[in-house]
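Sanity check. The docking grid for adenosine-5'-diphosphate depends on where the pocket ends up, so I'm generating a full predicted complex first rather than guessing from homology. Inputs follow.
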Amino acid sequence: MPSPSPPPAPPVLPISEHEDEIVAAVDANPVVVVIGETGSGKSTQLSQILHRRGYTRRGAIAVTQPRRVAAVSVSRRVAQELGVPLGDEVGYAIRFEDRTSERTCIKYLTDGVLLRESLSNPELKQYSVIILDEAHERSLNTDILLGLMKRLITERASDLKVLITSATLDGLKVSKFFSGCPVLNIPGTLFPVEKFYSTERPTNYIESSLRTAIDIHAKEPPGDVLIFMTGKDDIDKMVSKLEERIQNLEEGSCMDALVLPLHGSLPPELQVRVFAPAPPNCRRFIVATNVAETSLTVDRVVFVIDCGYVKQRQYNPSSGMYSLDVVQISRVQADQRAGRAGRTRPGKCYRLYPMSVYEKEFLEATVPEIQRSSLAGSVLYLKSLNLPDINILKFDFLDPPSRESLEDALRQLYLIDAIDENGQITEVGRIMAELPLEPSLSRTLIEANELGCLSQALSVAAILSAEITLRSTRSKDVGGKRKKQELPDGSGWGDHIQLLQIFESWDQSGYDPKWCSDHDLQVRGMKLSKDVRNQLCQIIQKIAKGPTDVHARKSRKNDPDYRKLRRALCVGYGNQLAERMLHHNGYHTVGYRAQLVQVHPSSVLEGDEYGKFPMYVVYHELISTTRPYMRNICAVDQAWVEPILKKLQKLDVNQISGGSSEPKDSEPQDKHVNVPKKAVDVQQSEVDS
Ligand code: ADP
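Predicted complex below; grid placement will be based on this.
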């Protein structure tokens, strides 16, 4: 048998050249900030350096990543460099997927998974070192971890080291947050990058990127091209158009070309292709989301095409509405994108916007996620930690969220029984916090367990968490005509019931991949939902009091109108309730922020024979695209709504926020930064995570 090829020798990266300096700083300080260019080796080398220097003798090294794709990719790389199988000494853990063993001493994990681990082990004693990587991304979970680390280093003064790494972060600000901890600046080896600006914003940035790419291919010397797009849809379009144009290029380039997509929902085996060198005499075009800005370093790029946009999910606490917008990037992001062209030799960056836009319209830095997200899950998490002296409004955040969004979170948690009228976490809230789901779904599961329909609720939660896109209800038949597919229709009760029916039908088929393709459903997504369901079953069986019935089966026989499940959903989504308007089919949301909304066109819910929709529905999310829509809705009974309305009447926000009505000095008074955006209707799953 041929022997396996030896692992590549670890590269000498800027970080490695500063090994002694880094180790000396870590030896002498509980917290160290490391700032270094993207690609300088922060993610792959720091953990190995500390491992070599004995830091794993007393515990493992945790390296957090804001994105799942980076946790998987970087751990794979480190395992390869150390010549060990992934999952042994080096492993990763992301939500619903744990590839570690008791031998794992370097563990890459998403920041959300580390937060969850701290619930069962608040001192995180299993770790001797915690590296918060990619802190410049300012993900919600990393920001919360920064606050928690501040507490933890005083509790574990002698045996915990915290490193915070970043490509762009304002080191002094973080250092100040950690009482003046040292900041190590690792000089990079960035070559100059020449920047070219467009004279005006293109009307179609895909077309414009395409033209620029073809121009580079025809006229420029060898060197790979990195093209930034906003999401999977744009990338798919761009890849196929680019391949087509390259083939039809009249004055062909003297080089071959290879076009590769790169985004978070790409299967891992396709992701790794971007790390392999190009075949001889071939130019690679990598069409990527902002995952290639700093999270994943693609080598050998010489040309960058930057459309100047990014897809961003933003939450407005005053309307409870999400919008998924294509927004302008910040100057820091634009500089990061340009920098990707100068890692191996001098490069060129084509900015598809005028210099004046860069200078005057772009924000200096991206708004941290904590200031543009719903905080219900994070506040519940913080409450469940039982930290002494904690008043959520006064938690020590690097950049505090607005008072309005904290109060919004408290209200939501109160309406679904996670906290009581005094803002104290309830028993139900504690169980909810242990489930790796958003609060509404956790609450639904707990209620479903009480009502005897846990099995169905688990299927719904799993399929929602796997973010399966019901791509279309139509598919091509042999004659090329489009014919209606036989996807279940929710029996007139809405999308959650449809999702349940889909899962149950798939279960009945014996999890047959052909069933998925016959119904135009992605096999990978459906398999993930099955895994997620299994894991949720294990977790709920561990934490639920009393017996649980978790087996999937056709549920309609016993409860033809799905009353139990719909009731559980009504309790779980008690903060996301809407009432039909009397004279037409629009709805208004019920609660402290009434809002006119419509049923999303993708919904299976239809009006009755007179075109009337149900009086009350609960919704999974409100999303503002061309207009405000409720997505994933379920019809509920008026009788189930009454207790929620009563709770709403009693709700006193001062009381649930612990009576403190004085805003903190550092708290921003106005939290919504209006980032100029393009209006498009996009799926949540299109944002890379
Ligand atoms: P930083 O965290 O400072 O941005 P990294 O440690 O991620 O830098 O990257 C250092 C080097 O390792 C880069 O040259 C990058 O291309 C390479 N690298 C990182 N991940 C992978 C991977 N999965 N496969 C191959 N090379 C990788």
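Relevant for the grid: The two ends are 40 Å apart (CA to CA).
Also worth noting: Residues 13, 36, 38-45, 73-74, 76-77, 275, 297, 299 surround adenosine-5'-diphosphate (CB under 6 Å).
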